């Protein structure tokens, strides 16, 4: 087994709509040994730290797309053109919070290197449906907190090879829901309530979820 670092795939910094300062963020990451993908909407943040990969969250017409390992900012626009631009730069394309657009076509979904199925700011029911959809299509799944506040960072963590991802190779293994913050307790109890109400979801969903989340 190779590296399996803890990576939060979706963190926003103070610019734009988030409220996290760079200094506080770095302190937290160092203390907790957590790695992150740091995002800006439609621009590429510039933070140099071994536990941070800077990436762009591009607003495409149908959905938000996380572009990792790119050198130049990607223009917003049609999803296919955004995907082409990411590929041209040798980047990794991840569909952000699939749970918010479950009606996207199979053909489009299959063009992504990975899907963020578990997103800390998306309803857990949507997340679970997204997770099942991605697994059924055989697309790697990641999770991210979508943190806009410091205490949210690390709420959802993906285990993977951080260095490989930084080099444009995609290696992930598993997702963990974490933390004792109020927010993630809510996530955790929500998952438990789903599992206690089996009629809400088909059996395979519950089994997959159980396997994935450890709940
Ligand atoms: Zn975001």
CATH class: Alpha Beta
Helix content: 25-40%
Question: How many distinct domains?
Answer: 1
> Strand fraction band?
15-25%
> Which distinct ligands sit in these coordinates?
zinc ion
- Distance from N terminus to C terminus (CA atoms, Å) equals 23 Å
Shape: globular
H/E element sequence: EHEEEHEHEHEEHEHH
Number of strands: 9
What would the keywords be for this entry?
single chain, 215 residues, alpha/beta, TIM Barrel, nine-stranded mixed beta sheet, 7 helices, 9 strands, globular, binds zinc ion
Can you walk through the features of this model?
With 215 residues, the protein is α/β, with parallel strands linked by helices. It has one domain: TIM Barrel, CATH 3.20.20.140. 33% of the residues lie in helices and 25% in strands. The chain contains seven helices and nine strands, in the order βαβββαβαβαββαβαα. The chain has helices spanning 22-32, 79-88, 106-109, 124-137, 162-166, 182-196, 203-213, and strands at residues 5-12, 35-41, 52-59, 64-68, 92-95, 114-119, 141-144, 156-160, 172-177. Strands 7-6-5-4-3-2-1-8-9 form a nine-stranded mixed β-sheet. Helix 4 (124-137) links the parallel strand 6 (114-119) and strand 7 (141-144). The chain starts with a strand and ends with a helix. The model is unreliable at 178-192 (pLDDT under 50). Bound molecules: zinc ion.
């Amino acid at each position: 087994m190779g590296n399996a670092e803890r990576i939060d795939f979706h963190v926003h910094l103070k610019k734009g709509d988030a409220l996290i300062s760079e200094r506080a963020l770095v302190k937290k990451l160092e203390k907790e040994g957590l790695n992150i993908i740091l995002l800006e909407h439609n621009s590429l943040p510039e933070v140099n730290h071994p536990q941070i990969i800077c990436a762009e969250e591009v607003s495409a017409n149908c959905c938000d797309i996380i572009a990792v390992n790119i050198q130049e900012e990607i223009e917003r626009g049609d999803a296919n053109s955004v995907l082409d631009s990411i590929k041209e730069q040798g980047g990794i394309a991840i569909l952000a919070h699939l749970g918010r657009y479950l009606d996207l076509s199979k053909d489009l979904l299959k063009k992504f290197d990975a899907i963020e199925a578990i997103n800390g700011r998306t309803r857990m029911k949507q997340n679970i449906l997204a997770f099942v959809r991605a697994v059924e299509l055989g697309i790697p799944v990641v999770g991210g907190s979508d943190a806009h506040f410091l205490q949210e960072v690390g709420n959802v963590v993906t285990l993977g090879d951080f260095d490989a991802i930084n080099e444009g190779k995609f290696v992930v293994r598993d997702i963990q829901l974490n933390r004792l913050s109020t927010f993630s307790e809510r996530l955790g109890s929500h998952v438990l309530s789903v599992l206690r109400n089996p009629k809400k979801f088909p059996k395979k969903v519950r089994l997959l979820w159980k396997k994935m989340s450890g709940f």
